[in-house]
Amino acid sequence: MSKKNFNIIGNPFPRHDAWDKILGETLYAEDFTLSNMLHLKILRSAHPAAKLLSIDTSHAEQLPGVEVVLTAKDVPNNETVTKFGQTHDVGGFAGFSRALADKKIRFIGEAVAIVAAIDVKTATKALKLIKVEYEPLEGVFDPEEALKDDAYKVGEEDTNLICNYKVRKGDIEKGFKQADVIVENTYRVPMVDHAYIEPESGVAWMAEDKVITIRSATQVIEHFRGIAEILGVPHNRVRVIAPMVGGGFGGKEDITVETFLALVVLKTGKPATLTYTREESLIAHSKRHAYVMKYKTGATKDGKLVAMEAELIQDAGGYIYLSPWVLLYSTVKATGPYDITHVKVDTCSVLTNNTFGSANRGFGGPQPCFAYESQLNELAKLLNMTPLDIRKKNFLHSGDALATGRVLEHAVETEATAEKALVALGKPTKSKESHIKIGQGFAASMMSYGRNNFIHDTSRSYVGVELDGTVVVRCGVQDIGCGQCSSLAQIAAEVLGVALSDVSVYYGDSALTPLAGTTTATRQLYMSGNATWKAAKVVRNNLARIAGEQLKTKPTNLVFKGNKITAPDGNSLSLDTVIKSCAGQGIELYAIEQFNAPAKDLINFKTGQGQVFSDFTFGTIAMEVAVDTETGKVDVLKIISCFDVGQCVNPLSVEGQMEGGAIYGLGYGMCEDVILNKGITMTPSLGEYILPSSMDVPKVQTITIESGGGVGPFGAKGIGEPSCVPAAAAFSNAVADAIGQRIFDLPVTPERIVRALHKI
Known about the structure:
Elements: H1 18-22, E1 38-44, E2 50-56, H2 58-62, E3 66-70, E4 79-83, E5 94-98, E6 104-105, E7 111-117, H3 120-127, E8 131-136, H4 143-146, E9 161-169, H5 172-178, E10 181-189, E11 201-206, E12 212-216, H6 224-231, E13 238-241, H7 258-268, E14 272-275, H8 278-284, E15 290-299, E16 305-317, H9 323-332, E17 342-351, H10 366-383, H11 387-392, H12 414-425, E18 436-448, E19 458-465, E20 471-475, H13 484-496, E21 503-507, H14 524-551, E22 559-561, E23 564-566, E24 572-574, H15 575-584, E25 590-596, E26 616-628, E27 634-644, H16 651-670, E28 676-677, E29 680-681, E30 700-705, H17 727-739, H18 750-757
Helix pairs in contact: 10-17, 13-14, 14-15, 16-17
C-alpha cells in the first residue's frame, strides 16, 4: 500500500478521546469509587539513611475508624524485582526494591507503614500515632563519593556499584594523537520530576472470583505478575486495569500505589483507594537520573571527529529499579548521531541515599545529548566552524555503523532535520537594548524506539468485525494521553476500509485484552501497531477471499474503502454483506496476532559491540533566546522541532508529541531541578519545584520529514520520547551563543548565567 493510497493513515483526525477530555468526562483512576472503600495513607521516613529499629503501631490500630496498619512483617514477599522484559530474565538487569522498609532506610520518603481507614482524615491522624525508632546514619549522597571503597554502603551489599558498561571502537590513544584540537569538560545534570497532571492513584477490590483487581494510573498492566509475587498468590489471582492515564512520562512505569492497595485488599477483603499528594510524588517517587559526565573529544583541523572518550556516572538513588536499563540506553547513545573513528565509553550506575531514579521521558537520552552537543559547539568555536558545518562533517548516514558496531539499515535524516530547523529559525532577532543579548543554538539527537532486542519483546492484538460492519480492536495497550488507542483505530480502519468512527478500541485490562507489553520506550505504535496491522490483515484476507469469489476477481485486486469492497471493474459489495456471508460459512471474523520485535543476542559488555535496538529516530531542535545580562533572565523567542517520523499515522498527534516533547525538554534545560541537601528534598512542592509556564514558552514550530524508513506500521518511526531529547542541549547552546560563556550544569538558571558572566 503506497502512501498516496492511504485513506485514514496520514490524515489529521481528532483523537477518539478528545471531546471527552475537553468536556471533563474522561474517568481517571481517582474518579472510580466503590462502596465502603478504605482510604490509605503511607507513613514515610523523614531520614534518607537510617536503621529502622522498631515500629509500634498499636496506638494507630486502636484509633476508631482504622481498619488495619501494615508494616514489612505483613508483606509475604517484601523483595520486589522490577523486570524490564515481559516474560524472562535478562542477566544483570533486575531492579531490586522493597515494598516497605525493613531494617534499613535508603532514601527520604521511603514507605515504612500503610494505614487503611474509613476516610483520609482518620488515616492521616493514625499516621501520627505510629511510633518509629530510627538510628540516623551518615549516608552517601554524591555518586563519585559512593564509588570509593570506604564509602557508606546504601544496601546490604559490600559495594554501591550496581553495574558498569563499556564501548570500545578503534584505538582511543591513537585517535587523540591524530586530533588537532581537543576539548575536555565535565557536565552535571540533576534529578528532575515527571510532574504529570495526575498523581499516582488507584483503587482495588476483591472480585467475586477472589481475584484482586486493581484499577490504577499505570503504564504497565503486566505488573500483575510482580504484584502477585509480592502477595504470594498465583499470577491469575491479580488483575490490573488501566483507565486513561493523565500523563506518565515513565513515572508510572514503576509499581506505585498498586502494591499498597493489593496488600490491604488481601488483608481485609475490602476495597481500597490511594492517591499520592503532590508532595508525596515529589519527595518519594522516582526521578530522571542525575549524571556526572566527563567528555574528552578530539577533531582534526577540518572538523572530522577522530576521538571521543566519555565517562558517565549515574546516580541511581536508594534502590536499583530501572537504573541498569537507563544506563544502557545512555551508553549506546553516548556518542550521539556521529561517525567517530575512535571511541572509549565507560559508564556505571551507583547507589546513593538520594531519591531513587527510574524511567523518565527520553530514558537515558537527554543526559549524554547535553554533553556531546555542548562538546561539538566547543570544538566548532576552536576551529572557526559553524555548529552546523562541524556536524555535517560527522553526521551518521544510512549504512554507517554506530560505535557499538550496529549498522544503520534504515533512514537516517539527521542532516536534513538540522538544515530544515535552521532555515526555519532564520536570522537572529536584533536586540534593541545593549544588555539584552540574542543567541541561537540547536542540538541534534538520536533516540531508539521500542525496547532492547535481546529481551525478545512481543505484543498481541485482537481485531474483529461485527455483523454490521463495525470493527473492534482489543489490545493490552495503556493509553497515557499520547493517542495510543487512536493510532490502533486508524491502523485497523485503514486496512479494513472503514470509517474511523466505526472502530472501537478496548484497552488496558490484563484479564480481558491480549497482553501488549508496556507503554514505554515509545514502543506501542511500533509493537502494538504492527500487531494490530497483522491481525487486521488476516481479517481482510478472509473477507477478500469470499468477496473475490462473489465479484469474480482475485482477492489481491480488491479495494477496501468506504465500508465497501470494490473490484477493478467497479462492481462492489458492502462490507457488512461480505461479513454476513463469511459468518454463514463459518469463516473466522477475527484474528489475534502477535508481533515479535527482531531478537538479537545480548551485547558484549566488555566492548559494547552488538545490536541493542531495532531502529532510531533522528531529529533536531533549534532555539532562539534573549538573555538579560544584568539579571540572567532568559526569554525563549523561538523553538523549532524537526524530526524524521517515518510516516505520520496522525499528523495532529505527531505535532502534539513534538510540541510537548520540546517543552518537556526545555524545562530540563532552563529551570527544573530536584534539589537535594544530604538526601533531603528542598523542592517538596510545585511552589519550589519550578516548571516552565505558558508565559515561558513561545509557539513551537514543528517540521516533519516522512522518509518511510521506520520499522513501525506503514514505515512509521516513534516520536514520543525522541521529541524531548535534544531540547535542553539546544537551549544551553543558545544561551552560550548569547553570552559567550558555556555553562556545564543543568539547568541553565539565571543564577548560573550571572555567575558565568561575572566569573563568580
